[in-house]
Specification:
By secondary structure, the chain is of the alpha+beta class. It contains 18 helices and ten strands. It binds flavin-adenine dinucleotide.
């Protein structure tokens, strides 16, 4: 905060530096690797800033944004309630007009990241709640801003609001991040302001959520990078066994010279680079929704960001878990005990496929909303762009790699077309393949972006770095991309087997 890092991408009008999100994401990547728990503190504030920028009144922006941008105050997102997790529409927190333009909120929220702490002077809670006349479901949800300390007219901090942390969860990982149960309105009601129009809370929250979903995907990349760097260092200093082609007289080898250890390191790093590219490309699209020259380009960028966000979130966060697990494996027994610190990365990574919409929910979003965008045109435009993007590599010495990626793109296109048809004829059958389709999409698009990086790497990077990049891309094409065929098969398997058992027969499995 003292060095101004949280303000990187915020608007200069409110004390920010006005830099692109793509750059902010790269900086956040490093902060996440340093400590996923700690980096969450300012990350949530950025989401609140985005929501206020898009939906706050000028007065609200002036009152809250400068201190959120600077990091003097921090933000939270309050969606989840005991009965309303993935199904946000089931939330019951109430907001009653107080008569003076404010609202009094009553309800309990659970799992609220950084709901309470003393790292900042004030905490600005963005809370989803229902007005008295609200229709049921998501169309009846409104967004409120509830400060921990009320703000006086001169901007100074006033009395403590009627919002309290009832408890901090004990959890698998993220041990430095307080996950709080929050009680709003145990007394006369927590004072809040309406953000955006009544009943438009979900739309407003989606501004935060697109940002946050991409950021959670990035968390997967960052934690995988941390696990990779640690495992690599260990592999270069731990001696065990004799490599099969070790020079005569060498009785034990560094484990980095065993084929299986190299395989694990290559899986980690090649997937990290593929997922990182996917996240950064999504951030560029989000930037273009604001900064592209004309309306048509801005709309195309929005469609691209919409399409890629669930993949960036889910595929990258799964890679975080996989890489953190492989990091432990490379350490052997030393990875499983706490002393090396390798286990912490797996514990920290494990939340990323869960929060900000589980990866199952991301897959449904991709299948039901993103694949059919503009009658499938957004998807086919992306397929065409990838095919065209192969041309340069196809003319180079690396043409066989481009050919393999081209076949995988065809596979993705075929699978996407079949699922769109299935979505119309038999939606449950399409949904049964949603998770595998999302992974197929990630594997193929990630491979495409890795490949696109080769020629610039050869032209611009020092020789060693360029060779490493080439090795990663070749490994990915040879050993990761072949999964595309299997994933397409699974994505098209349909729902017959999944639903051949009744609910009772399912629950009888232990018998
Ligand atoms: C450490 C931590 C921090 C968090 N931070 C915040 C925060 O700051 N703010 C906040 O509001 N929330 C936060 N959460 C809550 C988090 O976003 C939810 O836990 C998450 O959205 C899942 O909801 P749930 O836990 O109720 O799981 P459920 O919704 O009960 O899901 C259980 C399983 O069922 C699946 N499922 C559910 N519905 C469907 C469906 N329709 N179709 C297919 N599968 C389905 C899910 O994918 C999942 O596998 C946090 C949670 C944790 C653990």
């Amino acid at each position: 905060v003292e060095s101004g890092w949280p303000a990187l991408t915020a608007s200069p009008q409110f004390g920010g530096q006005g830099l692109p999100h793509a750059l902010g994401l790269a900086v956040q990547d490093m902060a996440n690797s340093a400590s996923l728990s700690f980096s969450l503190v300012t990350l949530l504030s950025q989401g609140a800033v985005e929501a206020l920028k898009a939906h706050g009144t000028p007065a609200q922006q002036l009152r809250y944004m400068p201190k959120l941008v600077s990091g003097e105050w921090t933000g939270t997102m309050n969606l989840t309630e005991p009965q309303a997790g993935s199904d946000v529409g089931a939330l019951t927190t109430r907001a009653v007009p107080a008569g003076d333009g404010h609202y009094r909120l009553h309800g309990t929220k659970i799992f609220i990241t950084c709901g309470e702490h003393e790292l900042s002077e004030n905490i600005i809670h963005l809370v989803l709640a229902r007005l008295p006349d609200a229709p049921a479901g998501t169309s009846g949800i409104s967004l409120f801003l509830v400060p921990k300390y009320l703000i006086n007219h001169d901007g100074s901090l006033g009395a403590r609001n009627d919002v309290r942390c009832l408890g901090v969860e004990k959890k698998l990982g993220l041990h430095a991040s307080p996950t709080c149960v929050m009680a709003y309105g145990e007394g006369e009601g927590a004072l809040g302001e309406l953000i955006s129009a009544p009943h438009r809370g979900m739309a407003a929250m989606f501004t935060m959520m697109n940002h946050a979903r991409l950021q959670v995907g990035l968390q997967g990349v960052s934690i995988a990078e941390r696990a990779f760097q640690q495992a690599l260092a260990y592999a270069g200093e731990r001696r065990q066994g004799r490599a099969i082609d070790a020079p005569a007289g060498e009785t034990s080898s560094f484990i980095v010279n065993h084929a299986d250890v190299r395989r694990m390191l290559f899986v980690m790093k090649s997937k990290i680079e593929a997922a990182r590219a996917l996240c950064y490309v999504t951030a560029v699209a989000l930037d273009q929704t604001h900064f592209a020259a004309d309306e048509k380009s801005r709309a195309a960028a929005q469609a691209r960001a919409d399409l890629l966000t669930p993949i960036a979130k889910a595929w990258s966060s799964d890679i975080g878990v996989e890489a953190a697990s492989l990091g432990i494996q490379i350490h052997g027994g030393a990875g499983y005990i706490e002393e090396t610190g390798a286990a912490q990365h797996l514990r920290d990574a494990r939340i990323t496929p869960i929060y900000e919409g589980t990866n199952g929910i991301q897959a449904i979003d991709l299948m039901m909303r993103k694949l059919p965008l503009r009658n499938g045109e957004v998807f086919s435009a992306f397929i065409e762009e990838m095919k065209e993007g192969l041309a340069e590599v196809s003319r180079s010495a690396h043409a066989p790699l481009a050919a393999a990626v081209g076949r995988a793109i065809d596979n993705l296109a075929m699978c996407g077309a079949m699922l769109q048809k299935r979505l119309r004829d038999s939606p449950r059958s399409a949904l049964a393949g949603a998770g595998d389709f999302l992974n197929l999409f990630g594997v193929v698009a990630g491979g495409y972006y890795l490949l696109r990086g080769i020629l610039p790497a050869i032209d611009h990077l020092p020789e060693g770095a360029a060779r490493r990049r080439l090795a990663l891309t070749r490994f990915y094409v040879e050993s990761v991309l072949p999964q595309a065929v299997a994933l397409a098969g699974a994505a098209l398997a349909g729902d017959e087997t999944l639903f051949m058992l009744s609910t009772q027969e399912m629950l009888d499995f232990p018998n």
